[in-house]
Amino acid sequence: MIRAAITGVASYVPEKILTNFDLEKLVDTNDEWIVSRTGIRERHVAADGEASSDMSVQAVNKLLLETGTKAEEIDAIIVATVTPDMLFPSTAALIQHKIGATKAWGYDLSGACSGFLFALKSGGSLIQTGHKKVIVVGVDTMSSILDYTDRNTCILFGDGAGAVLLEPTEDENYGIIDDLLFIDGSGADALHMKAGGSRKPATHATIDAREHYIWQDGKSVFKRASTDMAEVSAAILKKNNFNSEDVAIFIPHQANKRIIDMAARKAGFRDEQVLINIDKYGNTTAATLPLGLDEVVKEKRIKDGDLVLLAAFGAGYTWGSILLRYGPGKKG
Length: 332
Ligand code: UT7
Hints:
alpha/beta; Peroxisomal Thiolase, Chain A, domain 1; 2 domains; five-stranded mixed beta sheet; four-stranded mixed beta sheet; 10 helices; 13 strands; binds oxa(dethia)-CoA
């Protein structure tokens, strides 16, 4: 059986850092509240005019360099994002053009914080049906849809991009092993952007009502995120007859340190097995999982063939987990 192996990962965050102390000057908040309720200390914010495709190109060019891949060899580019440069054309098309991936096709996918999981599953399916090199990007410029007068949301998010290269392997010890993915649109009321889509196109009134920003009922999302991400993380291990000690690293979505701790406890992980970087980046939506994967690979916290568990929960609702063995294995 052909499996999709992750043969490289790279990421990018913008230079500018916004600390909790910077936010104290913008809204009625304080470092102590933000750290104790979320675990976030700072987040990176895109420069003026820096959009999702720009950050993605930085990550993808690093990925091509590090994996010795030529842009012309890429068969497809899938981009998970809720902050595309424009509603159309796709961010995938903009990235394709900027990196010179002359033989690629591709598309954007909207899965919010679970977007990278959904894109990884899609990319894996393309590999299983004959593609040889697929790039999967998770990117979000959350600062472009944050209301920096709303303390409920502006403290939570940051900007970033991450990308992986998928290639076929016939080595059954490598690649994407299994996934559990879900959507439940009954959660749409709890986390959304009210205007700017076909239901409520932009007007002076929507702008005056500040409806082009993220709106979140934090408590409702918290309740579902803390149960569903925990359950789906434990469930995928059980389904595949693994226990937590078999896993080298658990990379959960980074929306709130308290949600991460609950998921880790429920799935039976020790602290050392859990990637936590929410303190540095905040919630970067679709970029969170590839940023985390890049960090554990670059810091050599995992080695070739190690078992990795990814999990996320986000707007939609969307949630899920993917279990994989990192590295190339034998080429398919
Ligand atoms: O990525 C997509 C998925 N998103 C998530 O998973 C996020 C899930 N939700 C959360 O992480 C949490 O609900 C938040 C971090 C958003 C909020 O934490 P909380 O512990 O649920 O706080 P709360 O909303 O219950 O607010 C508690 C108090 C309130 O004051 P009162 O009514 O008790 O007087 C808020 O007004 O904290 C106040 N508050 C703040 N205080 C200082 C809310 N935001 C802030 C703030 N600084 N930034």
